[in-house]
Amino acid sequence: MTVITKKSRRARHTFCAFILCALVFILVSGQSYPSPAVNIRVCVAKGEDRILLSVKGSYVIKAVNSDLELGDGRYLKKEYVIPTNSGIRLGKKEYKIYGIRIIPKKDASIYVDKKRFRGVVDILRTEDLKLIVVNHLNLEEYLYGVMRSEVPHYWPMEALKAQAIAARTFALNRISGMRDRDYDVTSDIYSQVYGGRGGERWRTTRAVKSTKNKILTYKGEIIPAYYHSICGGHTENAENVFGLEIAPLEGRPCPFCRGAKGMYWKVKLSYEEVEKLLNGYGIKVKNIRSIGEGSRDRSGRLKTIKITDTAGGRKIPCFKFRLAIGPNTIRSTDFTVKNAKNTAIFKGRGWGHGVGMCQWGAFEMAKRRLTYKKILEFYYPGAEIVDLEKAR
Question: CA 204 to CA 161: how far, in whole Å?
């Protein structure tokens, strides 16, 4: 006969409660989707002759796309990774394969050129003996490293939440279309700026966590949730920039970014500078004589730029002209041009391609106590905010 004491009854009750919670967790987990967390591949370096690698903590090195283990350790001091004719050299060791994968254990951190990263890092050798570095990590943790790089961490929380949902949606849309590539996104302005673990801040991480799995869809599809810094008073049609016709990304008047820092800009460039940049981008010109304005769309942005050179006159799509000169030099396509002594003077307003959410507009809306839902409804009209599980 077993004697049941108060202590043993409490233990049995605790054990039963644990089993019940476990069963509930299993049942709920079985209904959620996706089962494995969504991962993303971020190109954090490309076309490098060498990179500086270190790991603080235990790690394993494997061959990319293989279970072949090449080595391990408790701490990797700073070592250069260099591409060779037959493979990749890490410090004094040479691996005769095209790529190595560094997998951290527990809370170890990987550093690439002194930048700290979560997750796994691949270092790949290209045919022209350059290096590509790809960071594999959980989508939510990736967003931790994006947020502060895209918007100030001290902005109102509702603006940060809107940014988190837009960034998550943009990333998921890219993942679905890049499966045959070595990476899904880059870490610069051509995708989303990503600063790794060193770029994380408490408030921006909180915005990601509080909107976990929330994304934007239109007619059941995940939209490419583009965003930019300052629209300059009117957002742009995605069709004019990306050739994409979708209702939530049609341009509309925006009264919220008028007082934004950096709204107006001016830059002076010589014809020689412009010519060099255009040719480097693949737009062939020779001996520029003048630069003029072409037609404009209904948002006020230039659709084309007129270039007159020794071959005569030609029109260039303005968004290509901006990319060729540099998107932080010609900050938007809403500008005027004046010519003077082999020089062009560009005066404009706004910053970015203008499609989707205006970040400074979202900031002002949040200051006026509008919620992240209202912000997203304004900049992506017709889109729904849904949980990722429902969208998949």
Answer: 8
- For residues 102 and 123, the answer to whether their CB atoms sit within 8 Å is yes
Q: pLDDT tens digit string along 127-143?
A: 999 999 999 999 999 99
Q: 355-365: b or e for each residue (b if 16 or more CB lie within 10 Å)?
A: bbbbbbbbbbb
- Within this chain, do residues 50 and 133 fall inside the same structural domain, yes or no? yes
Within the chain, which residues score under 70 in pLDDT? 1-36, 391-392
Q: Is residue 18 part of a domain?
A: no
**Together in a domain, 179 and 211:** yes
CB 319 within 8 Å of CB 333? yes
Beta carbons of 335 and 350 less than 8 angstroms apart: no
The answer to the question of residue 24 being in a domain is no
Residue 13: the pLDDT is 45
Q: Which two tokens stand for residue 321?
A: 């002209």
Q: Say if residue 194 is in the same domain as residue 333.
A: no
In a domain, 51, yes or no: yes
- Domain count along the chain: 3
Give the pLDDT score at 392. 61
Beta carbons within 8 Å of 93's beta carbon, 6+ residues apart: 71
Q: Average model confidence (pLDDT) for the chain?
A: 90
Contact 59, 108 (CB under 8 A): yes
- Which domain does 296 fall in, by range? 264-349
235 plus 365 within the same structural domain: yes
- In the structure encoding, which two tokens stand for residue 219, read together? 């007619």
pLDDT per residue as tens digits for the range 356-387: 999 999 999 999 999 999 999 999 999 999 99
